[in-house]
Automatic annotation (TrEMBL):
Keyword tags: ATP-binding, Coiled coil, Cytoplasm, Cytoskeleton, Microtubule, Motor protein, Nucleotide-binding
Organism, as annotated: Oedothorax gibbosus
UniProt cross-references to PANTHER family, sorted A to Z: CHROMOSOME-ASSOCIATED KINESIN KIF4A-RELATED
Keyword ATP-binding: yes
GO MF annotation terms: ATP binding; microtubule binding; microtubule motor activity
Family recorded in the similarity comment: Belongs to the TRAFAC class myosin-kinesin ATPase superfamily. Kinesin family.
Name of the protein described by the UniProt record: Kinesin-like protein
């Protein structure tokens, strides 16, 4: 084969790919400072709340008013909104970001009984039709649909892991029952440097079970089993109140079949335990102790949020709680983050509703800087491209 035909075969493919990657990296650096997207969801009144007077008014698609205070958000969903509507408007457009190599975190915040678990779909049950389930099952289903449409060009591996933070300890929800309550199964957080972007720190849970799943059904079975192991307890505000923060991680790894380059991205779904006041949720004994821990970690979360939005504070104490430590990336870092603040419209919850709305409003000011997570193969590819272009320059020099 002549040198010229060799050049014409190589040049367009590699030059195009190199230019595209370089432009993508530059654009990522320049443009990707995004605010956390904040949505508020006002659930309908439940049967035992029917005679109370809802204090909260939804105005337009992004304004709410409660007790004379008006707040603006990116989205506001009223009492008739469905899980499908919330998913399609706020989360669906983030799924392609995962395939571009960006992390995505969805966080449900709100008082006990306000609809966090319902909205996230953490309590998924395979009898519920897929269009009525919460964000997690819908997001997972869309991930596998996208994999199906891209599998001719790329190889994918999807891994799931699931933890809960209960009384400031981390438990693995992905391992079989029995083992779960074992003291030894309390897990620790570790930090490591990102191989691709050295300025980034990756926060992980050491020895956490990671399961490879091949389809929506397998992923949802994992979710169902894990959620069944979550600590719950009855409070006056919610018969099956989640007493822990639950974090499901869906890791999507992809390798381009023609170039061998790889990317990975984390879809992180956080169902927080409810913020509550002990007098309204009527807790005592163990429930009160749990409530104190829950409120403490939510307070640390709000302190981190305040620090991130303050122009004066430069040090952010992410290690002040397990929750903020694990959410480090999602709050101030390398992730597209959506917070869904759930509120209960009944008059007895007016104070909690107001505090949730204030909290969510502050969170809106946080800025994230999402970056593509390239793997080491991609680094090698870049090196290879450099070498190939040096060879091409030598060939062109020879030709002219
Ligand atoms: N948007 C909604 N529409 C109908 N029922 C809802 C809605 N949100 C929550 N619920 C119901 O309200 C109750 C409390 O919701 P849940 O998600 O468990 O609250 P949280 O997780 O915030 O403590 C559950 O019975 C749930 O089915
Ligand atoms: Mg819950």
């Amino acid at each position: 084969m002549s040198v010229v035909s060799l050049v014409s075969r190589y040049l367009p493919k590699f030059v195009k790919r190199t230019i595209k990657e370089k432009i993508n990296f530059k654009l990522t650096k320049i443009m990707n400072t995004t605010n956390i997207v904040v949505a508020v969801r006002n659930r309908r009144l439940l049967n035992d709340e029917i005679d109370s007077h809802p204090p909260l008014v939804v105005e337009g698609h992004n304004v709410v008013e409660v007790k004379g205070h008006r707040f603006t958000y990116d989205y506001v969903f009223g009492k008739d909104s469905s899980n499908l509507e919330v998913y399609e408007e706020v989360v669906k457009n983030k799924i392609p970001n995962l395939f571009e190599g960006f992390n995505v975190t969805i966080l449900a915040y709100g008082s006990t009984g306000s609809g966090k678990t319902y909205t996230m779909g953490t309590d998924y049950d395979d009898k519920i039709p897929i269009d009525q389930v919460g964000i997690i099952p819908q997001g997972i289903d869309d991930i596998f649909k996208m994999i199906e449409s891209e599998k001719d060009d790329k190889e994918f591996v999807v891994k799931v892991s699931y933890v809960e933070i209960y009384n400031e300890e981390i438990y693995d929800l992905g391992i079989p029952k029995g083992k779960f309550q074992d003291q030894k199964n309390k897990l620790q957080i570790c930090e490591r440097e990102d191989k691709g972007a050295k300025e980034l720190t990756i926060v992980e849970v050491r020895n956490l079970t990671q399961k490879v799943v091949h389809n929506t059904k397998q992923a949802l079975q994992f979710l169902m089993k894990g959620s069944g192991r979550r600590h719950i307890g009855e409070t006056a505000k919610n018969k099956f109140s989640s007493r822990s923060h639950a974090i499901l991680n869906v890791l999507v790894q992809q390798t381009d079949k023609s170039t061998g380059s790889g990317k990975s991205a984390k879809f992180q779904l956080v169902d927080l335990a409810g913020s509550e006041r002990s007098n309204t949720s009527q807790t005592s004994g163990i429930r009160l102790k749990e409530g104190t821990q829950i409120n403490k970690s939510l307070f640390q979360l709000s302190s981190v949020i305040m620090a991130l939005t303050s122009s004066k504070q430069s040090f952010i104490n992410y290690r002040s709680s397990k929750l903020t430590h694990l959410l480090r990336d999602s709050l101030g870092g390398n992730t597209y983050t959506v917070m869904i603040a759930c509120v209960n419209p009944s008059s007895t919850s007016a104070e909690e509703t107001l505090s949730t709305l204030r909290y969510a409003h502050t969170a809106r000011k946080i800025k994230n800087q999402p970056k593509v997570n390239m793997d080491t193969a991609a680094e090698q590819l870049k090196q290879l491209q450099k070498e190939v272009s040096m060879d091409l320059i030598a060939i062109i020099h020879y030709l002219i």
